């Protein structure tokens, strides 16, 4: 056996034959390709048709950038995109602040209350959006008209609050998952060195959680961009977000500029997710830890 291994190790020795793949490996490989096509083929179709020069999305007339150029000359599209971006930014800020505080509290003050709170967050996460929308509309009308808090009559405020509900739960999961694996001895050492609680929170706890906070902010931003059902209920005249604009455009037929804006938002989402992974990677997380943090596991 030793002589055989020595012969194989010689420079002139013939390479060893690769083991033949079993039929099950081939079948699983083909099945994986089919699943990926099933998931991403509709997105690929939208991206391709965003370069359609025709008047309707379903009819291909030729390749060009006319659809992207029409975005710059149509005020309705510009206003819808602007409302969506502003709403997503404000909702992401709200969700990041509330979710970060909730995640830190769950990680640093464990107890039975944490499981009850996690259950409430899970309830928020799995509740159908139509239920949230039906509940939010009369609640905001009550606050804006009956109570007299006029800010809840503003469309941007309504959309921001409605979009931040689900995003807050996501940020809470992410921040808690980050801090649960971090040792609390640094915070105890800071307290032993006579640092105030606020200083310890700002310079130690928040610093440890910052990668997850940034990841949660970016994810909250992307989640808020496509909050269609809630937005359709709580919007007011003059503040129509992009998803609701697309729904209304279905009545007259989808046009290539809708696919063009969708492609741009898809690119923004992919860039945000890439930044999330980059932030966590620079913080020293492995691929498994990045996936765990992004899913709140």
Automatic annotation (TrEMBL):
<keyword id="KW-0812">Transmembrane</keyword>
<protein>
    <recommendedName>
        <fullName>Spermidine/putrescine transport system permease protein PotC</fullName>
    </recommendedName>
</protein>
<feature type="domain" description="ABC transmembrane type-1">
    <location>
        <begin position="81"/>
        <end position="279"/>
    </location>
</feature>
<dbReference type="InterPro" id="IPR000515">
    <property type="entry name" value="MetI-like"/>
</dbReference>
<feature type="transmembrane region" description="Helical">
    <location>
        <begin position="26"/>
        <end position="48"/>
    </location>
</feature>
<keyword id="KW-0472">Membrane</keyword>
<comment type="similarity">
    <text>Belongs to the binding-protein-dependent transport system permease family. CysTW subfamily.</text>
</comment>
<keyword id="KW-0813">Transport</keyword>
<feature type="transmembrane region" description="Helical">
    <location>
        <begin position="258"/>
        <end position="280"/>
    </location>
</feature>
<feature type="transmembrane region" description="Helical">
    <location>
        <begin position="113"/>
        <end position="143"/>
    </location>
</feature>
<comment type="function">
    <text>Required for the activity of the bacterial periplasmic transport system of putrescine and spermidine.</text>
</comment>
<feature type="transmembrane region" description="Helical">
    <location>
        <begin position="155"/>
        <end position="175"/>
    </location>
</feature>
<dbReference type="InterPro" id="IPR051789">
    <property type="entry name" value="Bact_Polyamine_Transport"/>
</dbReference>
<feature type="transmembrane region" description="Helical">
    <location>
        <begin position="204"/>
        <end position="221"/>
    </location>
</feature>
<keyword id="KW-1133">Transmembrane helix</keyword>
<feature type="transmembrane region" description="Helical">
    <location>
        <begin position="85"/>
        <end position="107"/>
    </location>
</feature>
<dbReference type="Pfam" id="PF00528">
    <property type="entry name" value="BPD_transp_1"/>
</dbReference>
<keyword id="KW-0997">Cell inner membrane</keyword>
<dbReference type="InterPro" id="IPR035906">
    <property type="entry name" value="MetI-like_sf"/>
</dbReference>
<keyword id="KW-1003">Cell membrane</keyword>
